[in-house]
Amino acid sequence: MFQTTAFVSELIRAANEVEKLTPSEVSRLLDRSVATIRGMREQAGVAGNRRTNDVVINLGIASARVRDLSIEDIKDTLIDAADAIRALRIILVERE
Fold first, then answer.
1. CB of 29 within 8 A of CB of 11?
2. What distance in Å separates the CA atoms of residue 19 and residue 72, rounded to the nearest whole number?
3. For residue range 39-66, what is the model confidence (pLDDT) as tens digits?
4. Any idea which UniProt keywords this protein has (predicted)?
5. Of 59, 67, 65, whose CA–CA distance to 36 is shortest?
6. Where are the domains of the chain?
7. For the chain, how long is the longest CA-to-CA vector?
8. What confidence tens digit (pLDDT) does each residue in 61-82 have?
9. Which of 52, 60, 75, 87 is the most exposed place for a label (fewest CB within 10 A)?
10. If 0-12 CB within 10 Å is exposed, 13-18 middle and 19+ buried, where does residue 90 land?
């Protein structure tokens, strides 16, 4: 769980300093977020809904289009990723 806590902190820090990040750095963070969320969902036995507005889908699209996003959109996306990971961490901790 410490790794997810550190990653959430990294995402929040990146959102607060988004102007200092390159598009490649943002894309890598978003790709790591997708992988982390998928792994945590698998551990928790929680599946994403492919028909609705799923955060994993949105993060993947944002990663691919990062050069087209505004600073505010990037900031919001990084925070969304952190929120999703934080929520999954809570579910996993409760199940232990």
1. yes
2. 10
3. 999 998 877 666 556 899 999 999 999 9
4. Plasmid
5. 59
6. 2-95
7. 41
8. 999 999 999 999 999 999 999 9
9. 52
10. exposed
